[in-house]
């Protein structure tokens, strides 16, 4: 019988069932910990998703796709509006509303203008330059007597200058005049809201520049709405806005409509300017 070397290492201890369980359990625990660490690092490296309900959503979509063309951003919505026009053609002489989500979400438009046939062609979180880009497709074969435009706030919110807003408005006017040389164009000024109150100085400057363009044109009107939602304390009245603190509520739209309606009561012509501070 061979005698074991006193200096040799007995490995049989590690192959006992109890020790095998302990070893493999430890290895599994380490592997799980490593996996969780890797997944945590990956997740924390991802940019946070912005909830759709935030006031900045429509503009953030534009900012996130800054390298896309207007066609890339809005083609589906424009095609849907074109389909709507084919299914329900705009009557001749109607009042056509163009603009961003503050027009698109104006659900009470028809009841706010009960004496007129009004048509809503607002889309997404459009820039004023987007409205100009799609003007020919938004008009299509329609022959409205008045085109009401409400856009420009998203331009300021996404870093465009007041001068950019003025340029976009001029481009829109040119596009509309090429299609409808005699149409009346009414521009609703950007309105101060809680969500974007810090942008009011730029909004005001953009409004002033557009008003200058309107004053130099023919058959165009500028409606001053910058302070229309402000309360006695000088801050936007929550009643005038949806919970997102950005888009007008039914009360806010009713306030806008009360200011705009007098423009449509005189078929022979429109006043040069309507001020939001005048009595309703």
3D architecture notes:
The chain has 280 residues and is α/β, with parallel strands linked by helices. The protein has eleven helices and six strands. A six-stranded parallel β-sheet has the order 2-1-3-4-5-6. Helix 9 runs parallel beside helix 10. The longest helix has 29 residues. The C terminus is likely disordered.
Quick description:
This protein is α/β, with parallel strands linked by helices and 280 residues long. The protein has 11 helices and 6 strands.
List its salient traits.
280 residues; alpha/beta; six-stranded parallel sheet; 45% helix; disordered C terminus
Strand content: 5-15%
Number of helices: 11
**Could you spell the SSE succession in H and E letters?**
HHHEHHEHHEHHEHEHE
The largest β sheet comes out as: 6 strands, parallel
* Strand segment tally: 6
Tell the overall outline: globular
Spatial strand arrangement across the major sheet: 2-1-3-4-5-6
**Backbone CA Rg:** 30 Å
What does the average pLDDT come to?
82
Structural topology:
Blueprint: H1 17-45, H2 57-64, H3 70-87, E1 95-99, H4 101-104, H5 109-112, E2 118-122, H6 128-133, H7 135-139, E3 146-150, H8 153-157, H9 162-179, E4 184-188, H10 200-216, E5 220-224, H11 250-260, E6 273-275
Parallel strand pairs: 1-2, 1-3, 3-4, 4-5, 5-6
Helix pairs in contact: 9-10
């Amino acid at each position: 019988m061979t005698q074991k070397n006193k200096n040799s290492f007995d490995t049989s201890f590690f192959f006992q069932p109890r020790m095998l369980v302990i070893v493999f359990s430890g290895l599994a625990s380490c592997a799980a910990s490593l996996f969780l660490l890797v997944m945590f690092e990956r997740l924390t490296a991802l940019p946070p998703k912005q909830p759709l309900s935030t006031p900045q959503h429509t503009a953030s979509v534009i900012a996130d796709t800054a390298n896309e063309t207007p066609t890339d951003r809005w083609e589906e919505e424009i095609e849907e509006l074109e389909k709507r026009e084919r299914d329900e053609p705009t009557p001749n002489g109607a009042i056509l509303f163009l603009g961003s989500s503050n027009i698109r979400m104006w659900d009470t438009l028809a009841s706010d203008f009960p004496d007129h046939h009004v048509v809503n062609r607002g889309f997404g979180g459009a820039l004023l330059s987007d409205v100009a880009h799609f003007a020919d497709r938004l008009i299509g074969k329609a022959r409205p007597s008045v085109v009401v435009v409400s856009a420009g706030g998203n331009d300021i919110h996404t870093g465009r200058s007041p001068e950019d807003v003025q340029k976009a408005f001029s481009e829109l006017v040119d596009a509309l005049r090429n299609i409808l040389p005699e149409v009346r164009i009414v521009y609703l000024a950007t309105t101060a809201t809680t969500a974007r109150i810090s942008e009011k100085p730029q909004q005001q400057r953009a409004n002033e520049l557009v008003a200058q363009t309107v004053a130099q044109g023919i058959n165009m009107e500028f409606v001053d709405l910058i302070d229309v939602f402000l309360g006695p304390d000088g801050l936007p009245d929550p009643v005038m806005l949806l919970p997102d603190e950005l888009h007008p509520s039914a009360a806010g739209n009713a306030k806008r409509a009360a200011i705009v309606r007098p423009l449509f009561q005189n078929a022979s012509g429109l006043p040069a300017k309507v001020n939001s501070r005048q009595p309703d």
